[in-house]
Write a structure and sequence with these properties.
6-stranded mixed sheet, about 230 residues, alpha/beta, 6 helices, Metallo-beta-lactamase, Chain A
């Protein structure tokens, strides 16, 4: 399998490009508008045809490249069924599988960071990796204080859905702020300081006590992303 991980240093966002191999069909997860040309160059260099572009949720810290990629490549844009972004080509439900040219991604509804967040499991018959968006981060978890976020739902999504995947499944989040680029389900069970050895009540208290400032681009990014980045 061909796999590329891109990083946007301004928003600390990871974007993932997957294909069965060079010269094949491809999909991309959580693309950033300012990096659009970078993705297009990679697609051209690898002779890939972009078929699907996915956002795990409505991001508040950067503008999505869904619209730009659709304009440039004709790809189908996808978000979860609870998104308010009416501009996407398709909305996917929990348990549905995105299939392109040998790649299989199964949708998993994982609210908590936002009320419409989805994760995507690679090769669901024998899970190899999971793209968690902002719900589960490496040694952390996505904030739960806006966009319909809820710490109880975050706990349920992580502990009762993501942590039921095999320990060896690789975790690829949409963001990292500490220099990590991947983790695993087993690592996060054992070492995530917000979750390891914690009760739901303790986790909720941690999340409610973060008192983080709003993302700098929130007032611009959320409306723009509801229009697939083309507002």
């Amino acid at each position: 399998m061909l796999f590329r991980q891109f990083f946007d240093p301004v928003s600390s966002t990871y974007t993932y490009l997957l294909a069965s191999g060079q010269g094949r069909e491809a999909l991309i997860i959580d693309p950033v508008k300012e990096q659009t040309q970078h993705y297009l160059t990679a697609l051209n260099d690898l002779d890939l045809k972009l078929i699907r572009a996915i956002d795990t949720h409505t991001h508040a810290d950067h503008i999505t490249a869904l619209g730009d990629l659709r304009d440039a490549t004709g790809c189908v844009t996808i978000m979860g069924e609870f998104t308010k972004a009416s501009c996407v080509s398709e909305q996917i439900r929990e348990g549905e599988t995105i299939r392109i040219d040998g790649i299989r991604l199964q949708a998993l509804y994982t609210p908590g960071h936002t009320d419409e967040s989805f994760s995507f499991v690679l090769d669901p018959a024998r899970p190899r990796a999971v793209f968690t968006g902002d719900v589960l981060l490496i040694r952390g978890s996505g904030r739960t204080d806006f966009q319909g976020g809820n710490p109880h739902k975050s706990w349920d999504s992580i502990v009762n859905k993501l942590f039921r995947l095999p320990d060896e499944v690789t975790v690829y989040p949409a963001h990292d702020y500490k220099g990590w680029n991947a983790s695993s389900i087993g690592e996060e069970k054992r070492h995530n300081p917000r979750l390891a050895g914690k009760t739901e009540g303790e986790y909720v208290a941690i999340m409610n006590g973060l008192n983080l400032p709003n993302p700098k681009m929130m007032d611009i990014a959320v409306p723009a992303n509801l229009a697939c980045g083309n507002a």
